[in-house]
Amino acid sequence: MKNINEGIESLAGIKSNLFGKDFLLTWEKSDNDLRTILGVAEVLREMRKQNISPRVFDSGLAISNFRDNSTRTRFSFASACNLLGLAVQDLDEEKSQIAHGETVRETANMISFLSDFIGIRDDIFLGEGNKYMREVGAALDEGFENGVLPVRPGIVNLQCDMDHPTQSMADLMHLKDIYGSIESLRGKKIVMSWAYSPSYGKPLSVPQGIIALMSRFGMQIELAYPEGYDLIPGIVEIAEKNALESGGSLTISHSMEEAMKDADIVYPKSWAPFHIMLLRTQLLKDGDKSGLKDLEQLCLSNNAKFTEWEYNEARMKLTKNGSALYMHCLPADISGVSCKKGEVSAPAFEKSRIQTYREAGFKPYVIAAMMFANKFENPAEALSKIMERDRRRFSF
Amino acid sequence: MKNINEGIESLAGIKSNLFGKDFLLTWEKSDNDLRTILGVAEVLREMRKQNISPRVFDSGLAISNFRDNSTRTRFSFASACNLLGLAVQDLDEEKSQIAHGETVRETANMISFLSDFIGIRDDIFLGEGNKYMREVGAALDEGFENGVLPVRPGIVNLQCDMDHPTQSMADLMHLKDIYGSIESLRGKKIVMSWAYSPSYGKPLSVPQGIIALMSRFGMQIELAYPEGYDLIPGIVEIAEKNALESGGSLTISHSMEEAMKDADIVYPKSWAPFHIMLLRTQLLKDGDKSGLKDLEQLCLSNNAKFTEWEYNEARMKLTKNGSALYMHCLPADISGVSCKKGEVSAPAFEKSRIQTYREAGFKPYVIAAMMFANKFENPAEALSKIMERDRRRFSF
Amino acid sequence: MKNINEGIESLAGIKSNLFGKDFLLTWEKSDNDLRTILGVAEVLREMRKQNISPRVFDSGLAISNFRDNSTRTRFSFASACNLLGLAVQDLDEEKSQIAHGETVRETANMISFLSDFIGIRDDIFLGEGNKYMREVGAALDEGFENGVLPVRPGIVNLQCDMDHPTQSMADLMHLKDIYGSIESLRGKKIVMSWAYSPSYGKPLSVPQGIIALMSRFGMQIELAYPEGYDLIPGIVEIAEKNALESGGSLTISHSMEEAMKDADIVYPKSWAPFHIMLLRTQLLKDGDKSGLKDLEQLCLSNNAKFTEWEYNEARMKLTKNGSALYMHCLPADISGVSCKKGEVSAPAFEKSRIQTYREAGFKPYVIAAMMFANKFENPAEALSKIMERDRRRFSF
Fold first, then answer.
1. Binding-face residues of B in 352-391 toward A, CB within 8 A
2. Which of A79, B64, B340, C189 is buried most deeply by CB count within 10 Å?
3. pLDDT tens digits along B183-231
4. Helix or strand or coil: residue B116?
5. What is the pTM for the complete model shown?
6. Domains of chain A by range and CATH?
7. CB contact at 8 A, B51 and B395
8. Contact status of B101 with chain C (Cβ, < 8 Å)
């Protein structure tokens, strides 16, 4: 997109329901909601490029609550907040008094007196992460309704046990950018494939997020993994239903080789099996360290049976015209680079490396768009006003 | 307060002496100073609610120096700074070169070249925290007088061994909000009571801050604790003197039961005995780890004699109309919630839970007011100018 | 400088080549480049004093990547960024996913989608720090050229294994401030002397930075150290060449006593011997912990032979008029203060203490000037525009 005003105009017709709402799962959002997020993100991205400042907050805080490590998402969140004028304050649960046994609902209020958003990553415990975000949300509702908080801060899911919506939406924006429109995705074959990694316990949220989102646009989705490496069944069902409704399809298969045939897009990425994650969550809750060690050993030795699940040039040749679009949320486990044997061979990754950087680059704007649409009932109008006021991001 | 201009007008008549001064202890401040802080805080809070931006700094840093854990105060300080336009920079003494043996006076200058405020929490060592703040202050004076620093940054005490002025002032603002005016506090009975906690070594600064501040407004203060759990004698004396001068009273007693009778306001909260804190400070200074362990055991077993000091519904019934206002600086040790047996029973806490969140919500504005009054000789005039310029906190 | 407009005017005539360039080593920069940095820094400093806001970013991030501890430089970088309107986001490599084996070139792009600058400290590994900065730079070039990044963030070297340019330039600004002009430095004798410290492994970058920079202005440089405590030979050669070209001199000697005679300026500071740092780098790379311990012992016992290398009042008496200007990058190892026996005696340090604070106070403005000159092709014009717009840093 080069013409910002055209971008804003095309947004104006879409009726979304994002105002004042948290963004927790893509499958809770309507197609119009998703189109609005993409449209706003594109306009914000273009404004940034053209040195137009979309800053709408003169002051205000955004809280980041990372319960797992993060680089990309941390920086994307910080970038999005900064673009709109918010300062990020980290909730570092180790430096806080939360260890004293404070309840979630209390902490949620204590950090929110002057906050506009809370970004949360909580992807370690299956069945817990998304639940935690909803607990925070309920506490914020209570605080706002009872006059504790001057505004109800919005929550952005920065990855949970179920979904990774800022990632999948950035991926969708990347696809739209490459193919020109959401409509062009119809009929395209995308392979969400398990891939081998020497590490253990990778979250399920990316593959789940991808199949649940991409199934909404008429794509032919193939979900490929070694037997036993299932995702959360309920989310696969959602993807199946989406595929049915959108005129696409969802196939599950167990050979990377077979899956890659004629693929337009491939997304080879490791994850832990659903039943292992369930066990792990229980052991973590029980604080059973030796049990966790045993499970890790079991899991790694099981993984080791599938080192053949590496995306490489031979497999790339099987894809459409031998040049499917390779996607990854990064960092990828690259054989011979970041590990001995991993998700992708070095030459295969190198071919698409810059492409994956571009893919990652959409995330700050997706997050900013989620925040923007939470705050402005009519995002198109707000963006128009920003164009009118004509404020530079960088100037004297 | 709904009408900001009335709030500003009522401030205009009060002559305070806060300009360019640190805020270290409430008992160093005049009544007019305290009224100014409250008045400015109320105006700032209302501005925030009405989307008026009181930002007065286009750039500038505020340093936070937390030598003990914090959530509420950390976020309150960050919120206050952000509201006025300052970016917070943490002085993390572990990541710094301070371990190399740097002197306080050097560090104080090194972090202040472009700083407007330093917020300090140092509540672990009895006899040290407040002293440290004054050392920092003296170093800043020296730096400013010698042309090292372009401005003399103000210091805000975010809790020391003696006082916790941002807490007690937020508590006072809460009382003013509930009872309508400072004058209405006259004659009210407030019970600052020790309460049982399974943890050890809680600072004395909250109870000390409460009795020293609330005694200035004609309240009937009852300080209740098990024998031996004394506060710093010199601060109790200050509270006694204040009570005498303000036409109130200060009684010390040793039964929670008795103390609660007919109370308007109760503040049940654990603390460590003064003489234990003295011992602990010495052992910490000596690095005597086994001594510290022994002391902790002794102290915990001593505490365990007083598990009956729990605020619960039976005790609530003894208070005025069975419904005294319950206060706490949070997080409270809630029996059956954050610990087996603690300061307050779950049902008693639940009745006032939202109230305590509101109480905490005044802190960011109290801190902002302390900074505001340090920077503007005539705060009422500055607030008027802010109203005139009519800048939105959130807008396009 | 009092008159900002005169400062800007004198800048206008200097043709520099800093626009869009990283600042990694002073010896890669022309004299005009250095004069531009100093001139811009002086104007920015005076603007700050006169409450004129030089903020040029409405939003934007600056990344700090500290691979070693820092207080002064961390706060100086934060101050500089804040002055220009950028928010600092720390890249904390422990909290990130970089441990997963991510490549430098990937991380460099991931943190830069909305960044304008990256400040890097990497001074631990000889032969690595500066190289790392160039790797980051090459990755940013690649990202920018391939449309991954909307702008190419500038890199500021916040200390590497070779140079500490923000320190040496702040030191130069301090000398200019004291002697009135760069021209007045001609003929002055400056002694960069090794000094004893009980600590081990101090970087070489400060002495190297000082001799390589100060040799460009016709000064008589004496580099004094115990035999064996050499600096990186290639950098000493650069300083020798500079001295020759500028009409100054560079002498190497091995007696602090002798060196101090008739000195105008003295810079007594500890560092580790070049060959020890080489060994240490290899052992660190090999993860050879016992080898590192042995080396540390060897090094400390070797250091202990030179406790006489302390700058004290007796040595001060040998300097010109017994009152040479004492310089230090801080924190100094002060005998009887921060250690038993160190680089400088307490009375000698005390005489110049405030002076060293002032010296440190130039660093934020030097960093801000490096960023400013990277962003504006014509810094003088940009500063003029800032004067015209007349925006206050602090106001209602």
1. 353-354, 357-358, 360-361, 363-364, 391
2. A79
3. 999 999 999 999 999 988 899 999 999 999 999 999 999 999 999 999 9
4. strand
5. 0.97
6. 4-163+362-389 (3.40.50.1370), 166-360 (3.40.50.1370)
7. yes
8. yes
